[in-house]
Amino acid sequence: MTKLSVNVNKIATLRNARGGNVPDLLKVSKDLESFGAQGITIHPRPDERHIRYQDARDLKNTVNTEFNIEGNPVPKFIELVLEVKPEQVTLVPDAVDAITSNAGWDTIKHKEFLTDVIKTFKEAGIRTSIFVDPNPKMIEGAKAVGTDRIELYTESYATDYEKNKEEAIRPFIEAAKRANELEIGINAGHDLSLDNIEYFAKNIPNLLEVSIGHALISEALYLGLDNVVNMYLHRLK
Q: Is 43 an active-site residue?
């Protein structure tokens, strides 16, 4: 079964809007695990506009499932990850001013940089994943830099799902097949939702994990976190 890791950035966004500690990020993360989530994901950015670096430190002592920290491996981020030592680090090439992630790595162009960063994390015992577009060449590049996993950037699938789901998922199936051939683990995330997650999970061979935040928290406004987590788990079976 594909694991569900819940991205709690939106909880931090809501907390930060008023100051104080409501909602309590640590309590929500514990609750998500008790509802069945198999991991907690955070994506701290340099301006700390949602997840703060201290949140990462605090969550390390709170999360009992898998802790995944995403981000652009600038020096401050690398230092944080090496300090916290989560189970997984996901490298994302987002610009400092990006509202959200909007592209995968060019693993060929950035081969030397990624190789060095991944070596650093793996020497610390941290599993590595690289955010990539569904392009077999980029996956081959990911293999060359030594990553343990890739995370398929699924925005194009989510955008085109209602138009033609068979065409929308085709490049992801091909990318997954190449990853399987190269023996790289497969994660996925970005704009996956209750509407499109089941079809994706059923058609991507050996999908290990999905990371879902914005859609899950938005759906929970109507349905509640407990219900939504279990609805995702049901679709991922």
A: yes
pLDDT attached to residue 66 = 98
3-class state of residue 100 by DSSP:
coil
Per-residue pLDDT reduced to its tens digit, 9-26: 999 999 999 999 999 999
Q: Which of 50, 66, 151, 190 is catalytic?
A: 190
Report the alpha-carbon distance of residue 67 to residue 38 in Å, rounded: 9
Tokens of 61: 């002592």
Per annotation, catalytic residue among 33, 43, 66, 151 = 43
Other Cβ atoms within 10 Å of 76 Cβ, number = 13
Structure token digits, residue 167:
């065409």
Q: Clarify whether 70 is annotated catalytic.
A: yes
pLDDT, tens digit, for every residue of 219-232?
999 999 999 999 99
Active site residue 140: no
Backbone angles phi, psi at 22, to 5 degrees: -125, 120
CA-CA distances (angstroms) from residue 23 to 8, 47, 52, 163, 171?
11, 20, 14, 37, 39
Given 33, 66, 70, 151, the catalytic residue: 70
